[in-house]
Design goal:
heterodimer; A: alpha+beta; Glutaredoxin; 2 domains; eight-stranded mixed β-sheet; two-stranded antiparallel sheet; elongated; B: mainly alpha; 75% helix; globular
């Protein structure tokens, strides 16, 4: 008994620690964990200056009072970012009529602002029919690291490109990151937007 | 230097060296380096600290660790926690998690393993070795076949490299015990017993 009790107590503590870290076994990776964490506790997105595809300099707070569907890209990308662009276009098409621009804005934010100037952003946006009135393809002018940290985006430079985790992010009307959705399922983003309209 | 002090210096020294930024940078640069290299070496540093405590005696800790069961459970849960992709990733991004890893792995995995391993009944040790081989193989297979990155900080090729590392370790353990079984000197009845170590 003298050994059994401490062993059981330790096992219970161990199971508790694992359950705590993995949100009850739902998240074994940091990617899954941040999605659950954000859904439970929306986190404020820090304001930062940015430049859109038409060269306009503005701030992130200009999007406040609207729902924003965001994603992170770099325009030279030939794999995940074109996919994110195509799926963002699908999200745009699936939104209820009349909501785009007024109630919902789309944002494709470059994490390669050194190379992604308005010309490159415009070119990326044109491929998916992004119009600056409702879909900003933009680059942050300052505070990139803080923004990436807030969204939990990890960018690893490789020889000529970047590797990054791709997802769709929903920002609520109070400017808080309120949802992270798998890039494979744009319809889930649409459902989340509809639920908040 | 007395043997105990020697183990203590080796344990603390190894622990300190692993915590140095260059050592962390080198080991954490790759997924096998992080999961197998760094965590394995932290366990070893904790083991050395455990050796500095002196010979393992049946009555130590007032019987709370009889047969080494409690210490083994602590070590298994600690390792299970810190080899999760979630823990590896978060440790790279959050200094509090990194500090917790550097404290927990030596003190809650290496040290209790050292104080418990020799107290485990031989059959339990044999089962653990036998269980470790398929577990490493399955872990390797999971990392090898995962279509997505399990750690945001490491690329897919690192997962394949980790898989081969785990398979290599499993193969080495298998080879070691196979060779020992056929060519070793120790008869099984000498190493497998169910009671407290005399």
């Amino acid at each position: 008994m003298r050994t059994l009790i401490p062993a059981l107590v330790v096992a219970a503590l161990g199971i508790g620690a694992l359950a705590w870290a993995t949100y009850g076994g739902q998240a074994l990776t940091a990617e899954e964990a941040r999605r659950i964490a954000v859904a439970k506790h929306p986190r404020p997105v820090p304001d930062f200056p940015l430049q859109t595809q038409d060269g306009t300099r503005t701030r992130f707070t200009a999007l406040e009072d609207r729902l924003v569907v965001a994603t992170f890209i770099y325009t030279r990308c030939r794999t995940m970012c074109p996919l994110l662009g195509m799926r963002m276009a699908r999200i745009r098409e699936a939104l209820p009529k009349g909501t785009l621009g007024e109630e919902v804005r789309l944002l494709s934010l470059s994490f390669d602002p050194e190379r992604d100037h308005p010309a490159q952003l415009r070119d990326y946006g044109r491929r998916y029919g992004a119009k600056p009135a409702n879909w900003w393809v933009a680059r942050p002018l300052e505070g990139l690291e803080e923004v990436l940290d807030t969204f939990g985006v990890v960018v690893i430079p490789t020889r000529r490109e970047f590797r990054h985790n791709g997802a769709f992010y929903l920002i609520d009307r109070r400017g808080r990151l309120a949802g992270i959705y798998d890039k494979q399922y744009p319809e889930r983003v649409v459902a989340a937007v509809r639920a908040r309209l | 230097m007395k043997p105990r002090a020697g183990w203590l210096v080796a344990g603390l020294g190894g622990w300190g060296l692993l915590a140095l930024p260059p050592a962390r940078a080198v080991l954490e640069a790759s997924l096998p380096g992080h999961m197998v290299g760094q965590i394995g070496l932290l366990v070893a540093a904790g083991w050395l600290l455990g050796r500095s405590w002196g010979p393992v005696t049946p009555g130590e800790l007032g019987g709370w660790n009889r047969y080494g069961a409690t210490g083994l459970v602590v070590a298994i849960f600690t390792l299970a926690f810190w080899i999760l992709p979630l823990s590896l990733d978060t440790a790279l991004q959050d200094p509090a998690w990194e500090t917790a890893k550097f404290l927990a792995v030596p003190l809650l995995a290496g040290l209790p393993l050292c104080r418990s391993w020799s107290r485990l009944p031989g059959l339990a040790r044999a089962l653990l070795w036998a269980h470790l081989i398929p577990m490493l193989a399955v872990m390797g297979w999971i990392y090898h076949e995962a279509p997505v990155r399990l750690c945001n900080a490491y690329l897919l090729d690192q997962q394949a490299l980790l898989a081969w590392t785990l398979w290599g370790i499993a193969a080495a353990i298998t080879a070691f015990w196979t060779i020992r079984a056929f060519l070793g000197q120790a008869p099984l009845r000498k190493t497998i017993y169910l009671g407290e170590r005399p």
